[in-house]
Structure prediction request, 814 residues.
Amino acid sequence: MKNCIIGQSGGPTCAINATLCGVIKGALNHNIPHIYGALNGIQGIIDDKIIALEETFSDIYMQRLLTQTPAAFLGSCRLKLSSYKENKEIYERIFSVFEKYNIGYFFYIGGNDSMDTVARLSEYANENKKDVKIIGVPKTIDNDLPETDHTPGFGSAAKYIATTVREIAYDSAVYNLKSVTIIEIMGRNAGWLTCASALAREPGNPSPHLIYLPERVFDCDDFLEKVKQEVAIYNNIVVCVSEGIKDKSGKYVCESVASGLKDAFGHTYLSGTSKVLEKLVREKLGYKARGIELNVCQRCASHIASKTDIDESLMAGEAAVNLAFLGQTGVMAAILRTGINPYKSEIFSCDVNKCAGKEKVVPDEFISADGCDITKKAIDYLSPLIMGECEIIYENGVPKYLSKNNI
Amino acid sequence: MKNCIIGQSGGPTCAINATLCGVIKGALNHNIPHIYGALNGIQGIIDDKIIALEETFSDIYMQRLLTQTPAAFLGSCRLKLSSYKENKEIYERIFSVFEKYNIGYFFYIGGNDSMDTVARLSEYANENKKDVKIIGVPKTIDNDLPETDHTPGFGSAAKYIATTVREIAYDSAVYNLKSVTIIEIMGRNAGWLTCASALAREPGNPSPHLIYLPERVFDCDDFLEKVKQEVAIYNNIVVCVSEGIKDKSGKYVCESVASGLKDAFGHTYLSGTSKVLEKLVREKLGYKARGIELNVCQRCASHIASKTDIDESLMAGEAAVNLAFLGQTGVMAAILRTGINPYKSEIFSCDVNKCAGKEKVVPDEFISADGCDITKKAIDYLSPLIMGECEIIYENGVPKYLSKNNI
Prediction:
């Protein structure tokens, strides 16, 4: 019987190790003799940096720890394979390593670039009659993959954002003065995570008062006018913005507003979007202002992961192995929403070419007419994805996570 | 029987509402008829903006929600009372409001400035034969109050920092390249919270590799040299710095390094310490670098509050009422560490003048000889304070918090 190998690729999330665990569980269920992990994604295959996983992770407790660990247990990479025509050698190298380890199944967990790798490798395998099933499993906090209803990793990031925005809203309201708090959320081209900030709202507390996505052109004057209106009503307000908002000329807001700024080394200074808007509000409107960049915490705060997300990530990993054993290749284990109230989902097989290198942005029907809020339709789509809390194992007051250095 | 009034003051924390709940529970235990809350601290007394709390918070479920809510339920202020000699009117105003509400007990929850208010009001009461007991209850994430072993609010901020630094360390290690992540932690003059980052360490994972406190002079060249050494060993490293680190001339690092920088409006640009060091590392050493400011999340992330901290904060609130009923005034309900293994603590009464307006910094014995780490003694002091997780009530996937707008 053939062995399998698993790789993780692209930006870290809270759920990519849950998917890794799902693939391991699936492989154990199918009695695959050796379950290998490639260190740093496809690069680890090229460099023959490969570890065995079946022994350590046959243990249920280790599976639980792996599932709750953020980032990427196997390490990640950003390597994009060039086409088979351009660089035949790298494909031959990869498949010779597959042969060395008697690999019959390769599972690649990642975003749209990683799905491109899955597409290219399965095409190569087909054309060259290599009996290796190549299966993709989606992963990205950005939720920008087509075909899948949403991506593993997104729900946990969304839950972190909803929780943190609510906590910041409480924090920012304690003093009796006019203030504007601007929270910068990840997403260069797709505003999905910024949409999730709306889940912080509750009856009586409408924070965030304004939400700006990269799907709409950002206008500074209009922004200042809206801030003035909201402050007049609420005194303290919270504004959530995507890091990737651009003005009408297509320039990032952080570039256009701060342009001309030089740093101590004489280079153009590119401050974050929230800091640029903080200064704008302070200078133009005279309110107390604070810019907050949620930064990488959005993608690694596993202590507050969404149970729905972690469960689906495990499920997608297990399903990927089932698809391989059904003889499929060049497919991605995608999520289908099968129930609305109560929410239900299942995994389906989707041609990886439908999402390889493609990007799904927030649709018009999810964005309010004035461009600075989201619609009820968006809330209905987002709400189930942040439901449920995971039971986290702590040690000495800190969540216990797994790395190659501490197992 | 006389009534009581409670105020909250200074920066928000995760534990100040637990202390408020503790005072309410203590007041209910002593059958105080009316339990009032002053909105926005002492300012609410001056302005007669006062609400009744006894009805809402006789309910156990509401007590639980209040206890888990971050920020300051009653609102806060930064008002410092001038002396009785300078501004007699304000003291007369405060005590006339006390008289109007038949107040016999005033509990003020806050940091060293608030303890100054407690000292001044109790002195005034004594000199003018006013029968109002004035009791302080400590609160600050900064842990910079003397006399008390530590301050309510500190343990929860420390737990958030330890958890987040560990999560960021995992996140920053996924790519196989030299990188430096610089995490900026609150604390202008006292480095207590930055010390807590060391609790992120575990066997095999020494992040944070370097820790810089405001108690030591920061030297840029020495910093770059140390970063180089650590990167040579570990490839990816994490550095934790207090926002308030200063160079040998006494200038904040963010000012000294970025000096000369002008923003779009022609004003000197003061970027955060972490962003300044991020640029320094990138420009001088050529490594990938990322600055992360933990910002207000440090003081409002109630979803990951320390159970030890929340329990002690409740306990301090209840004890404050007991002290008032013992006839004490002008005192603070401080924490005494009474057991080491297992950790135990109790509340004692301390003369508020011993901490009013005073600041406790990290002692020399807690800082390593090379000035960029902490000692085992510091770890032993800090460890028990982050122990235990609170059972948080969630609603729709987000922690349920209480505000005046949603009760």
Remarks:
- The longest helix of chain A spans residues 154-172.
- The radius of gyration of chain A is 23 Å.
- Chain A has 13 helices and 13 strands.
